[in-house]
Design a protein that fits this description.
single chain; about 550 residues; alpha/beta; seven-stranded mixed β-sheet; five-stranded parallel β-sheet; 15 helices; disordered C terminus
């Protein structure tokens, strides 16, 4: 059997896989990208993130026209739903995006191979043909490379007493393709996927019930966020049952238990959305010496290298949140490490979003988690009800919440409940990336009128609370920051970068220092470790 050689083989063409392949090709590596689908993009683009967002947008248009258009002086007679047209719109979007990826692969000279891959050794794989008319191989073929990246993603978790049949008991893969609106849809699981798809079909007229085992839906969010979120979803017609343990489905009814009582929910469709599992089926990991963790995820080190020195793993198959953008960051960094470059990932600043209406967006440490860990924080909150643009956009529900360290004012996290929360969270992530403070955010100019002003105002509220509750003196802040600088200088000293360095404190409230080893930005002081560069080469301020 002939063997084709590459610098890098990437198994899996989802967001992590194709980003890794494209970045490696940009850096001059000869790359093969292998996937069992005939189109690139993986679960996310083909049957996950993108199709679901298309349906969310279409169903939101319908809900607006049905419930709110008249308030804007727009009269619509004979409003109806054409599910087939809605599905076609979704597929058109998917087609455009997968076609775009194919063009990018060609432009970057990435060799795309369609088939099921399995490891033969730490440097070689076998690709078997799949039953697909667009498959590019007719017989098994072998590829070898100096490095291999496993990016095979995840699959829906199937409950033993609720096996997927694709008709009544369905996964998210099926729920994005219903050809008609279900009369009664029961969603098992109150996480992002279940809430999003439940919202889609509820807007289109389905009677939707969310059944969640935990005490609250949207488990990662703070209690005050979830409380308001639950109320708004119920106002839209969704029924939400928490603390309910699902036990089975029989005679058109889902059964569950709560406090010793049996619950029954009539359903013509049951969407099981209780999480996803790493998909490593048939990869032959043991043949290459790749080990798994206790949670059946691939074991990796700090640079995502597996127990086989030439093999890396990224995205959903390793520890961490199963998010497309997390996989993308993993993929780009691994490509750079393999190419001898300085890859970078900050796993602590991975935003998570539930794309309902309103949306929930979170990043970093929540207020509840901070209190549970005994971390003293200040919290600033601002309601969209006080934001003029939010009212104009029919988005006055919800709020922005900023969580900052009580001692240093460094932003530790944020949570947003509101329209377009997923778009608004990014500026907070940006400030957190360079260690910015709530004051930095409060002093950043935001255009008026915009919904993003609520972010600024939440940070300002934190500042007001900070000054009232703590009454921190400047010398006290300087003392706290000095301790951070000492800790910061240790790794620099080990590299010979901070020996004899002078630490200068500038009582300059809004001086933005760059995020480089020579500078540390924290709270209301700026710290400059000045010995990394010769004095003559340092820029004047």
């Amino acid at each position: 059997m002939p063997v084709t050689s590459f610098d890098l083989i990437v198994i899996g063409a989802g967001p992590g896989g194709y980003v890794c392949a494209f970045r490696a090709a940009q850096l001059g590596l000869k790359v093969a990208l292998v996937d069992k689908r005939s189109t690139l993009g993986g679960t996310c683009l083909n049957v996950g993130c993108i199709p679901s967002k298309a349906l969310l947008a279409s169903s939101e248009h319908f809900a607006f026209n049905k419930h709110h258009a008249a308030e804007h002086g727009i009269k619509i007679d004979g409003l109806s739903i054409d599910v087939a047209a809605m599905l076609k719109k979704k597929e058109d979007i998917v087609g455009k995006m997968t076609g775009g990826l194919a063009a990018l692969a060609k432009a970057r000279k990435v060799t795309v191979v369609t088939g099921e891959a399995s490891l033969i050794s730490a440097n070689e794989i076998e690709v078997r043909p799949v039953e697909n008319p667009e498959s590019k191989i007719e017989n098994s073929t072998r590829l070898q490379a100096r490095n291999i990246v496993i990016a095979t993603g995840s699959a829906p978790v199937e409950l033993p007493f609720l096996k997927f049949d694709g008709k009544t008991i369905v996964s998210s893969d099926h729920a994005i393709a219903f050809t008609e609106v279900p009369k009664k849809l029961v969603v098992v699981g109150g996480g992002a996927i279940g809430l999003e798809l439940g919202s889609v079909w509820a807007r289109l007229g389905a009677d939707v019930t969310i059944v969640e085992f935990l005490p609250q839906i949207a488990g990662a969010a703070d209690a005050d966020v979830v409380r308001n979120f639950t109320r708004l979803l119920q106002k839209q017609g969704l029924k939400i049952e928490v603390n309910a343990k699902v036990t089975g489905f029989k005679n058109g009814k889902l059964t569950a238990e709560r406090d010793g009582k049996v619950l029954e929910f009539a359903a013509d469709k049951v969407l099981v959305s209780v999480g996803r599992r790493p998909f490593t089926d048939g990869l032959g990991l043991e043949k290459a010496g790749v080990e798994l963790t206790e949670k059946k995820r691939i074991k990796v080190d700090a640079k995502l290298k597996t127990t086989a020195p030439t093999i890396y793993a990224i995205g959903d198959v390793i520890d961490g949140p199963m998010l497309a953008h997390k996989a993308e960051e993993d993929g780009a960094a691994v490509a750079e490490w393999i190419a001898g470059k300085a890859g970078h990932i900050n796993w602590d600043l991975m935003p998570a979003i539930i794309y309902t209406d309103p949306e929930i967006a979170t990043v970093g440490l929540g207020e509840d988690a901070a209190k549970a860990k005994g971390i003293k924080v200040n919290v600033g909150k601002f309601n969209f009800a006080a934001n003029a643009r939010a009212h104009a956009n029919d988005g006055a529900d919800g709020f922005v919440k900023i969580i900052a360290d009580a001692a240093t004012d460094k932003i530790l996290g944020a949570q947003i409940l509101g329209k377009n929360a997923g778009e608004l969270i990014s500026e907070i992530v940006t400030h957190m990336e360079y260690g910015g403070s709530a004051e930095d955010l409060a002093r950043t100019i935001h255009a008026h009128p915009t919904m993003s002003e609520a972010v600024k105002e939440a940070a300002r509220r934190e500042q007001e609370r900070d000054s009232r509750a703590l009454n921190f003196t400047e010398s006290a802040r300087a003392s706290a920051l000095s301790q951070q600088v000492v800790a910061y200088r240790k790794p620099l000293a080990a590299k010979g970068l901070a020996g004899g360095g002078v630490v200068n404190f500038f009582a300059w409230p809004h001086f933005h220092a760059s995020p480089s080893p020579s500078r540390l930005r924290c709270s209301r002081f700026n710290v400059c470790l000045a010995r990394e560069q010769p004095r003559a080469s340092r820029p004047r301020r």
